[in-house]
Amino acid sequence: MQHPMKPSTDGSATTGKAHEGACRFLLSGIDTIECAYYLRVSDSCGIDFERLTALREELRLAKVREPAVVHLGSESFLLQPYGSASGYPLVMSNADYIIQFGELNNPSFYVKFLSEALWRDSAPGLHQRFLEWAASVDLHPVKDETLSRVDWAFDYSMPVIDFDEDSFVSLSVKDAIHREERKPQTFSFGTGDVVLRVYDKVAEIAQQSGKTWFFKFWGCTENVWRIEFQVRKTILRRFGVRTFADLEERQGDVLRYLASEHDTLRVPNGDGNRSRWPLHPLWLDLQARIAELPALGVLREIDPALAIEERLTYIAMSVHGYYKRVAAMCAIQQGKQAVSREEAGRYLEVFLRRVHDPLSWRVDVEKRANQMRLGQW
Predict the structure, then answer these.
(1) What pLDDT, in 10s, does the model give residues 219-237?
(2) Cα 117 to Cα 211: distance, rounded to the nearest angstrom
(3) 301 burial type by CB count under 10 A (0-12 exposed, 13-18 middle, 19+ buried)
(4) The dihedral of CA 365, 371, 372, 373: what is its sign?
(5) How far apart are CA 87 and CA 328, in angstroms?
(6) Pair 83, 90: CB distance under 8 Å
(7) Which helix or strand (DSSP H or E) is residue 38 part of?
(8) Cα separation, 264 vs 171, whole angstroms
(9) Nearest-CA neighbor of 196 among 228, 169, 168?
């Protein structure tokens, strides 16, 4: 199945005379995806959550490091003897996925699609396969999936590295450089919604990941450097990327912003303004590759529902602070050491009833709703 980012081995690269032969494009694609799925758990579900939880506890109490093999529907998995740090009671995996899930969690499944599977079968292909597995255990989506992380990778053959950390211009506040034997091995920028890494992929394979199958894809075993963008939900939503279908048609929009506005690699020329330095030939080639990807020309998408959710979050934080003050007053008045949030709410409700006027409430709510619809928040 063709990868959505069209891996290429044409060997071409946009290079200047001073950099002739300095870099050669090898391959590009999506290297990691994390996605939440909202699947309905029914009485006919083919997953026995109680049995899996009991098995997980048996493994944990026996202090067994080896996971247990479980067969669920059309696939087999390794059930881990632990839950996830994000609150999912069950974690299982196979060569293609790491799945966190729980009967009562919302979203019910959180899936990490692994690198080798993505390069082999493509993101749409793995997404469809996961849905087919879900259907095999009688789990069905109640709403669209939501992507929370996507990593894009661009691999180049680069015998000579003619740039350093000062050649990068980035919006990220934090950066880091890792060296081995005094030679740069990794340039890293950012720690949150966007992380750019430019690094020696061959060294990373030898020292960490062991992904030697890339050698066959590249057609070489040395001097390969990777440009990798790790992008999380905030930036994905900025460009309207929520589902796999969105990713297919808008990935060019996201990457164009990342490689043109957020991060660039430049050639120093003495100008005091680094953003006026000319782009490095490697980055010119990267931008040309990105220009070939599907895009809608989105600069920024405003999601009204998401905007309201963000504002409600800030209001909730303020109200929570007031609840604490009410709880403290209630504790003093009643001679208690502590008062719960629920108890503080009941205490505050007594005073809210005293000031509430149904008529003015209705009029004021309508007035404020109309103002918000017209852009006055």
Answers:
(1) 999 999 999 999 999 999 9
(2) 12
(3) middle
(4) positive
(5) 30
(6) yes
(7) strand 24-40
(8) 9
(9) 228
